[in-house]
Amino acid sequence: MSSDINSFPSYSDSVKFWIATVSVIAVVAVVCLSASAQSPNEWIVESNSDAGPDTLRDAILAANISDGDDVIRFVSPMTIRLRSSLPPLADDGITVDGSSGDAAADIAPQVWLDGAAAGDAAGLELNAARGVVHGLGVIGFARYG
User: What CA–CA distance (Å, rounded) separates 6 from 12?
Assistant: First the structure.
């Protein structure tokens, strides 16, 4: 039995069009599914300064403008002495995690927000859906924590 390349069926232009269309739809579906399964953006607070790079203020600003869910973590125990209100958590799905991984009511927070020098300020405001704050101590604010 001999095969000849010319013996394969040829497809009409409309069949070729539908094959191309289905292929494009399949690629788009794979891209969308992989985008929805992305892990959250992670922002690491390394500085206990009120403002500047690697601070909580910087991490909140970055999380507020990023796509998808966000987790803000701290490299070590610290007290952040604020001089003004922090920006609110204004984007859906932001988690501020000050815990060391332990989750019990009798474990003291490892990260503290101290608002004694912040004037008439609030500690941390959640203005969006699915915001979570845990393992964070809040003290000294004139308004609420």
Answer: 15
Model's pTM, two decimal places? 0.71
pLDDT tens, residue by residue, 105-123 = 667 889 999 999 999 988 8
Select from 144, 137, 143 the least CA-distant residue to 81.
137
- Residue 80: predicted pLDDT: 96
Amino acid, res. 7: S
**CB-CB neighbours of 144 under 10 Å:** 11
Q: Which residues of 21-48 are buried (b: 16+ CB within 10 A; e: fewer)?
A: eeeeeeeeeeeeeeeeeeeebebebebb
User: What are phi and psi for residue 13, nearest 5 degrees?
Assistant: -60, -35
Separation CA 139–CA 22 (nearest Å): 58
